[in-house]
Write a structure and sequence with these properties.
The complex is a heterodimer of chains A (about 260) and B (about 220).
Chain A (H helix, E strand, L loop, with lengths): L3 H6 L8 E12 L2 E12 L3 E5 L6 H8 L7 E6 L2 E2 L7 H7 E4 L11 H11 L5 H14 L15 H13 L5 E5 L7 H16 L3 E5 L3 H7 L2 E6 L2 E6 L1 H6 L4 H9 L4
Parallel strand pairs in A: 3-8, 3-9, 6-7, 7-8
Antiparallel strand pairs in A: 1-2, 1-4, 4-5, 9-10
Chain B lengths: L1 H7 L2 H41 L3 H16 L2 H11 L9 H27 L2 H9 L4 H31 L11 H12 L3 H30 L1
Classes of the chains: A alpha/beta (about 260), B mainly alpha (about 220).
Chain lengths: ~260, ~220
Amino acid sequence: MLAPSAVTQMSGQAPAQVVLRLDGLHKSFGPLVVLRGIDLAVREGEMVFLIGPSGSGKSTLLRCCNRLEEPTSGAVLVEGRDILGPKVDLNQVRRRIGMVFQSFNLYPHMTARQNVTLALCKVARKSKAEADVIARRMLDHVGLSDRIDYYPRALSGGQQQRVAIARTLALEPRIVLFDEPTSALDPELVNGVLGVMRMLRDEGMTMVVVSHEMRFAREAADRIVFMADGEIVEQGTPDAIFGAPRHPRLRDFLSSLGTV
Amino acid sequence: MQTFSSNFLNWDVVQTYLPDLLAGMWVTISLAAIILFCGLLGGTGLALVRMARLRLLNAVIIVFVDVVRALPPLMLMVVAYFGLPYLGVRLTGFAVACIVLASVLAAFTEELLWAGLSTVSVGQYEAARSTGLTFLQMMGSVVLPQAFRLIQAPLASRIIATTKNTALASVVAVPELLSQANTAQGYSGNASPLTAASLGYLVILLPMVVAARRLERARGAI
């Protein structure tokens, strides 16, 4: 297991740029401490899985990265810039950090295409025609070219989640955060979404994923970060985490899931 | 029967006062248009301000909304028209009617919209914010359209009620449809202008009522 900072400092082959870096991140909700000093660096093109028991702070960690939750203390750096600073244009930062939600959160009064074009027009300031072209391309990319003008209620959960991914990708984010993207899906729809995520990884997209899909994590992740009680307890390659877990909490967690 | 038709359906009388009645109808329509525009906009604005959750400001909004909804609009109008001049504020009847009825509509709109906004799921707000939309963009494109859809049936009946309430302006000397009909009735000693005025109200309101029903049906289909 290498500390990510050590990786970037290694001489030799040029290390990939750190896209997202968390330094000493703390988050409390009132008296409840959810994150107690998280240090994490995610490099360009890396797919990092956050795993851990429920309540361990995985989702909160993810939501601190685009300030859907305000960290109590610590730093969040995106491409080297602290996004917690007072002069930060948060909306432009958020454009560069995509987020995919457990419950999709598509806009129900808009078609798939309109879901994708909204932020393109309003935030990225594309013309309607440009946004339309991008929306088509993105929906095609996630395999929904025949559902462009469907409303969310006419789409399956898996299709809705893929529209949500297209909506995020359209803004050309530097990193995409996935918050349990398949947890709300019927089992037979999970693979379509995982397939899209695998495709994104192969295209070099930087991703941080909170997920309970351990089989997928083992197969697709570059690094797995195990959290418990608001701390990173152990991290490493999938083989190391699943094959040779060292920390007792991690062993307990993995055995509670049964065989992976 | 003969007496009824000569007193209520007398075309000659109506014809004599038709220009006045049409002028009254125009005043009613302008009054309604201004009140609906200001009231809906004001109510939306109040709901948006309330979303900022500033304690003092919210208390002020809630008191305003509750008081205005509790008082009879006619009383508010009379007090404003006959009472304000003693405080040195002299407003025309038209202005009083606009301000009072728009405030009442704003109060109801705020209350309805507030309920509608709280039923829009948190995930909608988060999805909008996570793609970099500003607060106003998020409200305008994502949240308000959904909230208005949720409250469109009660809001439509409120809009209809407000339009009918423009008749109250006759009490503060606004020459709107009912006031013109009353005057004509007084001069002619015949009630037919009132019959004509009710037809005028039907012309204005029936399309709104039908549209409201359509909305409700469309909502049932979703």
